[in-house]
Design brief:
Oligomer: single chain
Bound molecules: protoporphyrin IX containing FE
Largest sheet: 9 strands, antiparallel
Helix content: 25-40%
CATH class of the domain at 39-54 and 84-125 and 136-168 and 222-360: Mainly Beta
Shape: globular
Strand content: 15-25%
């Protein structure tokens, strides 16, 4: 009698488990199909500005300035993001001598042209921390002596073209509305809950949480040894494009970085200095463009979407060389801190597009002005 009861209970549990498994699989298949349907082309090749974006931008500026105040050092106001530099280095950016005609756009119009540039390498965090801590790593390039009309009408004599990137291909939010909600929650100390703002499951952003976790990656061996992505899109002449910078050691003399002590707080600076200043070996990268194919799912207004390489390949347009140099001096480090990079410092041919870039236009300027004015007042 007891055995029969146990057997029946066992059969019942097994059937329930099978049902649950089946339902789980069905749910997963439906979710995957829904995601694929939602994330399929064609997409717009134009910007689409939602209502209320500029009011949200003002809110975000206030949060950003609050963060700068929170993290100020005793003698300096730092950047709101990418506060810690590994160094600012001089670089040469050479347009490929045999660049295909359709890729000759903007600063890449003249094959073989060499631009002098400054590059700032950084950790992403809002305040300086040990390099061994998981983080995004930043690369900001500033091409100098740029002829032509600048995008920012109030800075006509800037004569620069900036490319501002970090080490992950997509962003942890889609747009300005989500950025405002997420960053305000994070500034209040709610790290994971920032991605689950209410009880309504439709507001949950589990995929964006995974992107945020993947962006905070272990450190590379050196700032010269990792890839950097624009994440957000830009004009590329008439086309829309994202860009990235990849290490290209094959174009430089062979070099093996001696093992660095990753327990030291600033080992990424030491690695850069070891290569460029002590061993006097240059570092090489390529600058690449990925043009939008609007028939594929390559949206302009959603920075959480990585444009897939199977949909549009990256194409090399220029080579970047960091020559041997002594960059780690007190005077050069202060000058580095005082530089400002901004995706809107540049020319029309590379105009930043999409919501996150429109937001950055106001925020970078406000934060940069604020920290410069506070530092000048000290
Ligand atoms: C598309 C994604 C983004 C990328 C690739 C990116 C990358 C970077 C990098 C590399 C820097 C350091 C620049 C330097 O070396 O001086 C930086 C600075 C900064 N970022 Fe971003 N960022 C992104 C999105 C944002 C967003 C959405 C905001 C806020 C609205 C933001 C706010 C800032 C601010 C305020 C600074 C400091 C500006 C200064 O004080 O000069 N960033 N960003």
């Amino acid at each position: 009698m007891l055995i029969t009861l146990w057997l029946r209970l066992g059969a019942f549990l097994a059937k329930t488990l099978l049902w649950l498994l089946g339902l789980g699989l069905l749910g997963w298949a439906l979710a995957t199909a829904w995601f694929a349907w939602q994330h399929s082309g064609p997409v717009s090749a134009q910007e689409m500005i939602p209502d209320g974006e500029s009011a949200m931008t003002q809110d975000i500026i206030q949060t950003a300035v609050r963060i700068v105040d929170q993290h100020r050092e005793s003698t300096r106001y730092l950047r709101d993001a990418h506060a810690k530099a590994h160094g600012c280095v001089k670089a040469e950016v050479q347009v490929l001598p045999d660049l295909a005609a359709e890729l000759r756009q903007g600063v890449f119009s003249e094959p073989g042209k060499i631009w002098q540039a400054n590059i700032r390498l950084s950790n992403g965090n809002a305040y300086p921390q040990f390099d061994s801590i998981r983080d995004a790593r930043g690369m900001a390039i500033k091409l100098l002596n740029m002829p032509g009309k600048q995008l920012l009408a109030d800075q006509p004599a800037r004569n620069e073209q900036d490319f501002v990137m970090f080490s992950h291909p997509n962003f942890f939010v889609s747009d300005v509305a989500e950025y405002r909600q997420n960053v305000a929650a994070q500034a209040d100390g709610k790290k994971v809950m920032a991605f689950f703002p209410s009880w309504d499951p439709r507001s949950w952003q589990a995929r964006h949480l995974l992107i945020a976790l993947a962006t905070l990656a272990p450190p590379p061996d050196s700032p010269t040894g990792t890839a950097y992505f624009s994440v957000s899109p830009y004009k590329f002449g008439e086309a829309n494009a994202k860009f990235r910078v990849m290490p290209d050691p094959d174009n430089c003399p062979a070099y093996t970085l001696p093992k660095q002590n990753h327990d030291l707080p600033n080992f990424l600076r030491s690695a850069l200095s070891q290569q460029l200043s002590t061993d006097r070996v240059p570092a090489c990268f390529v600058l690449q463009i990925q043009r939008q194919d609007a028939n594929k799912y390559m949206p302009i207004e959603d920075t959480s979407i990585e444009w897939r390489e199977v949909d549009a390949p990256f194409e090399t347009v220029a080579r970047i060389t960091l020559p041997p140099q002594d960059f780690d001096t007190p005077a050069l480090n202060l000058a580095c801190d005082n530089l400002s990079f901004n995706p809107w410092f540049g020319v029309e041919a590379h105009r930043p597009i999409g919501g996150i870039n429109r937001l950055r236009k106001a925020v970078y300027e406000a934060v940069s002005d604020y920290r410069h004015s506070q530092n000048a007042a000290q």
